[in-house]
Amino acid sequence: MTGTQLAFVVVTLSTAAVNAAVAAADLAGARFVLANSAQVGVPRSWLPRLAALKLAGAAGLLLGLLDAALRPLGIAAACGLVLLYLGALVFHLRARVLHNLAFPGFCLATAVASSVLAVSS
Q: What pTM was computed for the model?
């Protein structure tokens, strides 16, 4: 296994795990999720849909990791997560909620890294 392949596996697994955990927090209505979504203007009714998108992204990443024939699905999932977190950053910036901008920024970075490594491996 080359260094790029190892990085692909580690980053993809990490991205999938982070998104599954955040989706679980969304679905559970965790206090920090509710507070953050209220601050940035995301209606509570959107949380189950956002959780579903994060779970779909995590599942797509894992499927793309399991089989090279499914790699395009993993790439598409990573790209979808990139768009999701770009939207999150826009909501934070629009609402001028900058104190916790690092979290969607981190999730965006992992999604970008997953997509780049999936294409290059």
A: 0.94
